[in-house]
Design brief:
330 residues, alpha+beta, 8-stranded mixed sheet, 12 helices
């Protein structure tokens, strides 16, 4: 209960119990999880009354975090109990298209022995496939952008030029043209490229910082972009890459909130410009089984991880605009 900051009263716990039951999930469904068993084991040293209270609270916390039909009301109630205004909490406002609240619980054995993010250079195809491609072990490949010119070419002004007024990427209403505003007021990519130069460069101290992402659905723009980057050398040719690339861009002091994706495959993200700090958290069911991880990714490096299994948060460091491009592979 350290996450709450205080012990729950019996009335508050009863309200959470009622909510969990309305979610349609039973304690039996998750009582067998290793994390829950560990919590139950820790509570055995306490008195009978408090042991039941702590165990039930632990199970309910997992119910709320694992998801269900009433996930957002549950989170709102949780924030209320903590004295936090729900309207200020990103995950209480809407989960967006990259989160699947009904995902299956993770087998925590796959991350139990992972204690850090590896850093490698001269990574062979064989070693990549064996150790990283389909495991939960994240890796930063320090020489990942071999023979790329993206670092010298990509910039806010460059993107503004190749995404002209006729570009379909500027219209986020197209189903394949996804736009992620994160904590900004932007509605689409057109809004981003029309912002004032001072704010775009992060030089206006009075302007709100920004961080956004978009899918590269414009074939004309994609052809230009791909002249400056290619499949990372360590990914074998037999691994098919997604035809849809993703671009993330923003100014220092901002980034993506903690979230988990719902995409088809693992992915790589190349840090073209700027410095980005990554924070990784295991799913709630593995909180007591697996470690939290951190990594700093510098220009020229590529981070590879399964964003379907690691909750991840990013924060831009330094003074340079951050530009990241990535894709999935199978």
């Amino acid at each position: 209960m350290a996450a709450v900051g205080r012990k729950l009263s019996r009335e508050e716990l009863a309200e959470l119990v009622s909510l969990a039951l309305r979610c349609g999930l039973s304690q039996r469904d998750i009582a067998g999880l290793p994390s829950v068993q560990k919590l139950l084991g820790r509570s055995r040293s306490g008195s009978g009354a408090w042991r039941g209270l702590h165990a039930s609270a632990a199970l309910l916390l997992l119910v709320l975090l694992l998801g269900g039909p009433l996930l957002q009301p549950g989170l709102r109630l949780w924030f209320w109990l903590r004295g936090l205004p729900p309207h200020t909490q990103m995950c209480a406002l809407g989960l967006g298209g990259l989160h699947n609240p009904f995902r299956r619980p993770l087998d925590c054995r796959v991350c139990r022995n992972i204690t850090g993010v590896d850093r490698r250079s001269n990574l062979s195809h064989e070693e990549f496939l064996r150790a990283y491609a389909y495991s939960m072990q994240p890796v930063v490949v320090e020489d990942g952008q071999r023979n790329w010119s993206a670092r010298e070419v990509f910039s806010f002004e460059f993107f503004t030029r190749i995404y002209d007024n006729e570009s379909r990427a500027l219209d986020s209403s197209a189903s394949e043209c996804q736009f992620f505003p994160y904590d900004t007021e932007f509605v689409n990519l057109g809004d981003v490229f029309s912002m004032e130069a001072g704010r775009a460069a992060g030089m206006d101290s009075k302007a709100k910082p920004w961080y956004i992402g978009w899918s590269n659905c414009d074939s004309s723009a994609a052809s230009i972009l791909r002249q400056h980057y290619k499949r990372p050398y360590f990914i074998p040719a037999i691994s098919e890459s997604s035809k849809m690339d993703w671009i993330f861009m923003g100014v220092p002091g901002h980034g993506a909130h903690m979230h988990i994706d719902d995409v088809d495959n693992p992915s790589w993200q190349a840090q073209i410009k700027g410095i980005k700090h990554w924070k990784l958290e295991p799913p709630a069911e593995c909180y007591y089984e697996c470690s939290s991880l951190e990594a700093i990714v510098y220009p020229g490096q590529i981070i590879v991880l399964d964003t379907n299994k690691w909750f991840h948060e990013t924060h831009i460091l330094g003074e340079e605009l951050s530009i990241t491009i990535g894709s999935e592979y199978d």
